Here is the input.
Amino acid sequence: MGCLLARHGYATGQRALDFVQHLRRTDAKSDTRSPETPAQCQFVRE
Here is the structure.
């Protein structure tokens, strides 16, 4: 999702990651990270 946000100009870098967490706030799995790994987070940031 973070990459989609960045690709379409909605958010980039850390802001995209923060927005994904915001969107998931009411999800039943909101306590798990998305993306799941540090490498995935870095990929979105770059």
Summary: Residues 2-45 form one domain. The chain has three helices and no strands. The mean pLDDT is 91. Helices lie at 2-7, 13-23, 38-45.
